[in-house]
């Protein structure tokens, strides 16, 4: 397995190192192109495993973690989003209003003519992911 280094959009330049690594689940527990929610204390994370498919290019087989909170609906539903790609970039479309986000950077790629609720930032927080001996670990602040 490979180690996934996902940049944290809250930090300019180099990604901040995680404060701690938390075990999320077994790699086999995640179905390709389907999300799963994980709770670490009060932090909800959406995990996505990409298939080993040429359509995903260099992202094939990777696991990504983003905040589970959809900034446009203010609901914890990102794990229910639709996985896809845009110009080779792995994406997830929010299940409520269909905004599209990069799984690699958390950047909102399409707002669907909506604004985030409650002054939330439009971009998702991303978390570093490591797969060690078929176990997924998420780096948390």
Top keywords for this entry?
mainly beta; four-stranded antiparallel β-sheet; disordered N terminus
Low-confidence stretches: 1-14
* Average of per-residue pLDDT values: 90
Number of strands: 14
Find the structural class using helix and strand composition: mainly beta
Radius of gyration: 14 Å
Terminal CA distance reads: 24 Å
How do the strands of the widest beta sheet line up side by side?
1-13-14-2
H/I helix tally: 0
Report the sheet with the most strands, covering strand number, pairing sense and barrel closure: 4 strands, antiparallel
> Outline, from the CA principal axes?
globular
Tell me the β content. Answer: 35-45%
Q: Work out the helicity level.
A: under 10%
Order of helices and strands: EEEEEEEEEEEEEE
Structure characterization notes:
The protein is an all-beta fold and 141 residues long. The chain is built from no helices and 14 strands. It has strands at 3-4, 20-26, 35-40, 43-49, 63-67, 69-70, 75-76, 82-86, 89-93, 100-102, 108-110, 126-127, 129-132, 135-140. The strands form four sheets. The protein has a four-stranded antiparallel sheet with strand order 1-13-14-2, with no helix packed on it. The chain has a four-stranded antiparallel sheet with strand order 3-4-5-12, with no helix packed on it. Strand 8 (82-86) and strand 9 (89-93) form a beta hairpin. It starts with a strand and ends with a strand. Residues 1-14 have low confidence and may be disordered.
